[in-house]
Amino acid sequence: MASNNNHQSKSNKAGRDTTQTPLWLFEALNSQYNYVLDAAALKKSALCARYYTPRNNALKKDWSADIGLYLDANSPTPAAWLNPPFSNILPWINKVIEQQHKGILTTLLVPRDNRTEWWPANSASKIIDIVGYYEDQGVYLRGPKKGQPKRKWRSGGIRFINSLTGIEEPAELNKPMCIIEFNPNLIGQPCQYSTIPKNVLMALGQQALAKKSK
Q: How many Å apart are CA 212 and CA 175, to the nearest integer?
């Protein structure tokens, strides 16, 4: 029988709203979007040179005006990265829609929770589910499956970085994650749904990190 605790989070409640995105995941997406703003960060964990902290409150800022100071007329659509506080996502959805209409592309990393009021099925440009994958582990060396391919299922869950310690959480977040894009060039068009395996993102992220280290 189902228990009320089946989906209870094992992450640190005190730091849950300020956890940092794993660097490999951010860089995987940054390699595609070239972010110019981290819209919800702490000074010690910001992932872009330009960022908002709780102190300067992104919800009260005009991102387009701030970003515009750093862009030239030939720049592509400016993109903002957003890993919002999961305890109250709705105001952030409203904010990115506002900024979308001002020319800012935003991608959010959020739980895939379509039961909630904030879920943007009718307003997002793209929703990309991060899904699990099979890891190849050679072949079975004995038993009835001897010689057959051996594969193990790996979760698509994400382990965030604890904002209090700077260390990766020991457990994945207890909800599946997705990437939601609000694109100013796709306003009014139907939302596009897709999936991406976690190992594909990991590979993209590691490639981007390797390039930066050279």
A: 31
Share of the chain above pLDDT 90, in %: 69
Secondary element (H or E) of residue 211: helix 198-213
pLDDT digits (tens, 9 = 90+) for 130-150: 999 999 988 888 889 888 888
103 — alpha (psi -120 to 50), left (phi > 0) or beta?
A: left
Mean pLDDT of 120-136: 96
Determine the pLDDT at residue 199: 97
CA angle 188, 61, 57 (to 5 degrees): 120
DSSP letter at 16 equals G
Task: Give the H or E element holding residue 138.
Answer: strand 133-139
Ramachandran angles phi, psi of 137, nearest 5°: -130, 40
Answer whether residue 69 shows pLDDT above 70: no
Bridge partner list, 154: 133
Nearest to 87 by CA among 30, 140, 17, 37: 17
Q: Are strands 79-82 and 105-111 parallel, antiparallel or unpaired?
A: parallel
pLDDT of residue 133: 96
Show the tokens assigned to 25.
Answer: 């995941």
Amino acid identity at 41:
A
Nearest to 92 by CA among 115, 61, 122, 138: 61
- What angle do helix axes 23-33 and 198-213 make, rounded to 10 degrees? 80
